[in-house]
Amino acid sequence: MKRNPYFILCAAVLLMTACKSTEKNTVPIVGFVDAFEDATIAQAKSGFTDALAKNGFSEDKGNIKIEYQNAQGSIPTLTQIVNKFVSEPVDLLATSTTLSSVTAAQKTKTIPIFMMVSPTPERAHLLDAQGKAPANLFGTVEDLNYIDTSFMLIPKLLKAKAGKLLIGMVYNQSEPQSADAMERIKELAEKSNITLIAMPLNSSADAQLVTQSLLSKNIDAFFANPDNTVFAAFETIYKNCEQKQVPVFTSEAGLVQRGAVAAFGADIYQWGYQSGLQAAQYLKTHKTDGLKPEMVKVRKRVYNADAAKKYNVIVPDNFEAVK
User: Fold this and answer.
1) Closest of 75, 116, 72 to residue 92, by C-alpha
2) Is the peptide bond before 176 cis (omega within 30 degrees of 0)?
3) What is the Cα–Cα distance from 230 to 224, expressed in whole angstroms?
4) Residue 92 falls within a domain, yes or no?
5) I need a labelling partner for 140 at 20 to 30 A (CA). Which of 21, 50, 80, 293 fits?
């Protein structure tokens, strides 16, 4: 029987389309959500994708697709991004910083969420009435235990300073980890005979005004606590402190590269890498058995050589200079 060439052509096209559709559906999609644009926070995404690649998952190989979206600091945009990923749906969500993780946890109870640069579910106020975290929350988190060491770097490194230290900081009232950190630092300062002046900063747009107000109190040092607003406004904070010859210390290693004198805190790249290892395990097994939010493992004592020299700070040998 003679076959119709047109019919054969249509059948071939349909077959190819079906194959491509099947192929597309077999490639897992990662929805990566960043809350805002920041050079330090961006290291988490690099670590995450490097961990996936190390375990055989990369877009170059064509065996994974990473859809990256950045909310640029806008909560409505962040909500839209997460809703889009949930409705598609993606195979897993990767969330960087607290706002992304909390928003994702509020929008889906089924898609696995691999957090990074985020607090524990308890600190993020994500526990239910029984004290349990959402079953789809995984990745790497941080509590506030390390912040004692971070804050106490200041009196140790400024030990030549005579009299009682006056330390300033800003905090975001709407971020649970920021408000919690402020309360913890306040208690620590009282126990250590340090005067702490803390002022609210809920938007990076107000950073200059608030920082200048803080500096007018003649503070001896500024402490940049774990706060997304501080990350976003760091250059403004640092510039104003530098003009008044006030050294900046921090709990975030990435901010030392941007001008802070010293820090004891998580390596943001390694934070993302650690979460990426969990995501890779899920992609290999399609199971979450054995996975749970785990504490960040890599913390560093780092210092900025130029800043230390400028403020005559002698750094102990167990600190690593950053470039």
Assistant:
1) 116
2) no
3) 7
4) yes
5) 80
Average pLDDT over residues 243-248: 96
What is the reported pTM?
A: 0.83
Measure Cα distances from 209 to 67, 205, 240, 246 in Å.
37, 9, 10, 16
* 142-151, 180-189, 213-222 — most confident range: 213-222
Q: Count Cβ atoms below 10 Å from residue 246 Cβ, excluding itself.
A: 20
Instruction: For residues 221 and 99, state if they share a domain.
Output: no
Query: Helix (H, G, I), strand (E, B), or coil: what is residue 254?
Result: helix
Neighbours of 217 (CB within 10 A): 11
Phi, then psi, of 94 in degrees rounded to 5:
-115, 120
How far apart, in whole angstroms, are the C-alpha atoms of residue 234 and residue 228?
Answer: 10
How many C-beta atoms surround the C-beta of residue 88 within 10 A? 12
Are 176 and 124 in contact, with CB atoms under 8 Å apart?
yes
Q: What percent of the chain has pLDDT over 70?
A: 91
Query: For the segment 256-268, what is each residue's pLDDT rounded down to a tens digit?
Result: 999 999 999 888 9
What DSSP string describes 86-115?
HHTT-SEEEEESHHHHHHHHHH-SSS-EEE
Question: Is residue 137 domain-shared with residue 175, that is, in the same domain?
Answer: no
Assess whether 195 and 259 both reside in one domain: yes
The encoded tokens of residue 302 equal 């780092």
CA 230, 232, 235, 239 torsion: positive or negative?
negative
- Comparing CA positions, the residue from 96, 92, 142 lying closest to residue 116 is 96
Query: Which domain range does residue 285 map to?
Result: 28-143+267-298
Tokens of 11: 């059948």
173 and 311 assigned to the same domain: yes
Cβ-proximal residues to 57 (8 Å cutoff; 6+ apart), any chain: 28, 63, 64, 280, 283
In the chain, the number of structural domains is 2
Same domain, 255 and 119: no
